[in-house]
Amino acid sequence: MSTITADKLRRLRRIIQQTADLNDRISRGPRQVAAGQHAVAQTEEQVLSLKNAWKTMRMQSDDQQVQLKQREAKLVDLERKLNECKTNTEFKLLKDQIAAERQANAVLEDEILDKMERLDQLVLDIQKTEQLRDRAQQEHEKTTQRVEQESEGLQSELARVTNELQEVEQGFPADFRAEYQRLVRTHGPDALAPVDGETCGTCHTTLSSQTMNQLYLSRIVFCKSCGCVLFLAEDRVRRSSDTE
Ligand SMILES: [Zn+2]
Prior knowledge:
244 residues, mainly alpha, Helix Hairpins, 3 strands, binds zinc ion
């Protein structure tokens, strides 16, 4: 029966854990950059939409001001006609028309004033959103820089850990290597289960005394319940070698 020391299995678990952590950090970087890019694009879109709203309202307001000027000119014309009119009926008609025109102009003036206020508010909103966008841009640049800087270190750390893994794997029986690699693909670092008391550290099933004895002899033992590779904690091995 093949043997591998608990020490090697503990190292193996640590390396697999480190590899998983490193891969996680390596893949997190580009996700953070993408999220930053998205935040910038989103605020930029808000700025554009506010600017478009401002433009549309400004055009409407300009149109209404032109309209108001035309209506005021018309009113002047009507007042001139009022002064020149000859009959009472005509006078009354003009008087009513002038009153109606004045009323309509007052409504138009209110609308123009309302638009001016809303334009002022839009200018403030644009400024505020531009600040948010600039801040998002700065954050994004910082993140990109940080991720770039970290990436190199993480890659070389991964290369180092991968080398260490190859070193530890040397001397593993071929069938065990294939089996544990399959387990790692499914369970990650938990594919190697530290024995906790007399239970499997991954599935917590109680181990038989025969299994425990095999472990003390550094035999390769798979948990009968979850299939993971079992190994003893550091103090357990020492204690077993003390009694030998
Ligand atoms: Zn188990």
